[in-house]
Write a structure and sequence with these properties.
Number of helices: 18
Oligomer: single chain
Mean pLDDT: 77
Number of strands: 0
Largest sheet: none
Low-confidence stretches: none
Shape: globular
Radius of gyration: 21 Å
Structural class: mainly alpha
Number of domains: 1
Order of helices and strands: HHHHHHHHHHHHHHHHHH
């Protein structure tokens, strides 16, 4: 487990460093804070929609693969992957068509009709790629999956735009679409080597699995939705400058958000295998260890961000973004709580508590939608940051409480 964690940390840190570098380059290359706000508005659709249109199948895929491997049934593993791919492809295409039917005013906030077309084409590709990404995690190839998921695309984009002159939004989306397609093909090639021995497959038509998958849709998209509710609201209200400042703070917070994500990726297949073997003691120990690792790494980064927000924004984003210092500090608090609570969502899914994940996400997201609107009207990007940070903190604390209750009840039942 330690060796896997080290591999995931190195790969994940390189991947997120590439994403951070790409965002920094774009802040300097795009013409102003407003343009970066429009970019962030479009990227909110690109990152959020693929998580929902897959109906949660990528979330439970590592668990399905763990059970198929335990039963030595490659046809079942192949069927789990093919079922997930089918749902992702159909949902992605439907989302792409729907995106092009948005009101013209919303399209203009994203950059225009052609920009929306490029963005919509990325959605089915990203939905399918998400399945291959989770399949690689299920087969224990988390480090490779992390690199191909974001690092591969972001590192090439960063290099390309460093040597380019002033770039347009359509340049960014065109390159992004091509590289995402390439990374999806590479992921598929890697994942297929684990199932090539079986040409047969068992499609998953069991209602229990479909219910579990749909319930975990919120697990897949809740964190992103919470982060992007404010982005959507600022974009729809056409507050481009405020959106640019909020997005700058969010991008810097990637340095803090990376650690719980990486720890979750490293431990998830272990959670799934422990629960598939009904080894509650091993799963409990792994969860405690994952919380500790996430906290040890994230706390120093939080102290750095909270103490020196203005210099960080000045040197990484540029002088026009220094006014986002308070936004950055507020968002960092929510990400600190996210790190301290550990990979609660992954653990709940592996324990077959998808209903808890769905209920907590639904209630927090619904509350955030209403609160975000009123907070932005009154306080602009500062209000958006408060709602986003509070939502992430409340969601993770609620789920941690559910994990504690589950472990206690399970321990009592075995004694």
């Amino acid at each position: 487990m330690i060796r896997r964690l080290i591999g995931v940390l190195f790969s994940g840190l390189g991947s997120r460093a590439s994403v951070f570098a790409m965002n920094v380059v774009l802040m300097h290359k795009l013409p102003g804070v407003e343009a970066f706000g429009a970019f962030s508005f479009a990227m909110a659709f690109i990152t959020t929609l693929p998580r929902f249109v897959t109906l949660g199948w990528p979330v439970i895929l590592p668990r399905l693969l763990a059970e198929g491997q335990r039963a030595d049934d490659p046809a079942r593993c192949r069927g789990a992957i093919l079922t997930s791919l089918s749902v992702a492809a159909i949902g992605g295409i439907a989302a792409a068509v729907s995106l092009n039917l948005l009101p013209q005013s919303v399209k203009e906030s994203m950059g225009g009709n052609f920009t929306v077309l490029l963005v919509s084409l990325s959605i089915p590709v990203l939905a399918v790629r998400r399945v291959w990404f989770r399949a690689l995690i299920g087969y224990g190839k988390s480090a490779v999956a992390l690199f191909l998921d974001n690092g591969f695309v972001a590192s090439i984009l960063a290099v390309v735009f460093v040597y380019a002159g002033r770039v347009s939004l359509n340049d960014v989306y065109s390159w992004h679409l091509g590289l995402v397609l390439l990374s999806s093909v590479l992921m598929a090639t890697m994942a297929r080597q684990f199932t090539h021995s079986s040409r047969s497959f068992k499609p998953l038509i069991d209602k229990t699995w479909w219910s579990a998958a749909i319930a975990t849709t919120w697990a897949e998209g809740a964190a992103l939705l919470l982060a992007n509710i404010s982005v959507f609201t600022l974009g729809v209200l056409k507050l481009e400058e405020q959106l640019g400042l909020f997005s700058a703070g969010s991008r810097i917070c990637l340095a803090l958000a990376i650690f719980p994500t990486l720890v979750s990726t490293a431990y998830e297949s272990g959670f799934a295998k422990s629960m598939a073997n009904s080894n509650l003691i091993e799963a409990k120990s792994a969860f405690k260890h994952s919380m500790l690792m996430s906290s040890i790494i994230a706390v120093p980064v939080f102290v750095l961000i909270a103490t020196f927000p203005s210099p960080i924004l000045y040197y990484s984003c540029g002088p026009e973004y220094v006014s986002a210092a308070a936004i950055l500090q507020i968002l960092a608090v929510g990400q600190l709580v996210n790190a301290l609570t550990g990979p609660v969502t992954s653990f709940l899914v592996c324990c077959k508590l998808e209903a808890v994940v769905q209920r907590t996400a639904a209630l927090v997201c619904i509350a955030s939608v209403f609160l975000s609107y009123f907070a932005i009207i009154q306080h602009g990007a500062i209000g958006a940051a408060i709602v986003a940070s509070a939502g992430i903190a409340i969601l993770n604390l609620w789920r941690l409480a559910a994990v504690i209750v589950f472990l206690q009840e399970s321990s009592d039942a075995t004694t």
